[in-house]
Amino acid sequence: MYRITQKRSYAGLTEQMRRTLAALGLRKPGMVVVKEDIPAIRGMIRKVSHLLTVEVLQTKS
Questions:
Q1: pLDDT single digits (tens) 15-57
Q2: Could you tell me how many helices (H) and strands (E) the chain has, helices first?
Q3: Number of folded domains in the chain?
Q4: Could you tell me the end-to-end alpha-carbon distance of the chain, in angstroms, rounded to an integer?
């Protein structure tokens, strides 16, 4: 699981980056979402990594 925090705003971004942030569920700086560790989410994080802070959460086994 990932805890993803948006640290920068949408201002000056391309439409594709805006849509990627929206798909992650992020709308404004400071928002935090928790997402599963799946390839699609990892790809979205990689695309806009300069706008995010990502923490890996330990899962219960």
A1: 999 999 999 999 999 999 999 999 999 999 999 999 999 999 9
A2: 2, 3
A3: 1
A4: 13
User: What does the alpha-carbon distance between residue 14 and residue 3 come to, in Å, rounded to a whole number?
Assistant: 24
Report how far residue 23's alpha carbon sits from residue 17's, in angstroms, rounded to the nearest whole number: 10
44 assigned to some structural domain: yes
This prediction's pTM: 0.87
User: CA 19 to CA 13: how far, in whole Å?
Assistant: 10
Determine how β-strand 32-35 pairs with β-strand 52-56.
unpaired
Residue 61 lies in a domain: no
